[in-house]
Amino acid sequence: MKIALFQMSPAQCPTGMLDRVEAAMRDAAGKGADILVTPAFSPMYNNASSIEAHFSRDDWATRLTRSAISIGISLVAGVPEQDGDTHRTSALIINLTNPESPAIFRKAYLYDDADRTRFVGHGPYVVTADFDGIMTGFLMCDQIEFADNIRQLAQAGVDLIVVPTGLPQTPDQPFDAHHSVPIRAVENQIFMAYANHAHAEGIPSPQGSSCIVAPDGGILCATPRTGDALIYATIDPAAYVSSGPQKAFASEMTLPKHLH
């Protein structure tokens, strides 16, 4: 499976952001990609008030689903979700094998107090999808910092974890893209696709540094911190069969039971 990852510069106009996602879908499909991954909050980075003003879940889901079908590409897009009076940080999952029934993955826990004043976390759970024979799991943003989240998906049998993110630039955050993602990949013998917004002036400013990583921890492709970028990689678990014993070991790892 060929995966495309779109690192995009943040903007305040939600319609313009969706236009850019659709343009990236066309470019990716034209280069033979089967699926496109975008960052968290793709329609409106750092503009939560636009949720009520411009989007309900049906609005953006309908538009992006129609685009995926007409262009011919599956999509995982980070989106702000309005569900009644509840706002969530979510990912829309459109699989071309059943595009009329998109799935939603909602972030389990929220990043900071600012997020908690605007959004509601879902709590931990697992969502998987089969894209062209590649079993795929989903996390969002800083969920990759916690090994148990990745291990849970690995034990569910995923080959790939897709991570829409919008982590801001802080002194410690580059550790995620440069170290946490490769470490989690090799620990669990899985591919990881980590899609962030490009660094730009603003508060908070995202860190960029999006990447796609192989089960051996190798960086298949990566973006710089700044600027829009559309990058590609081939997800082929058979190419990493030499790591089979390590994967079998990883599958046997379980959390210890608490002893009273």
From TrEMBL:
Matching Pfam families: CN_hydrolase
Ranges of residues in domain CN hydrolase: 1-237
Name recorded for this polypeptide: CN hydrolase domain-containing protein
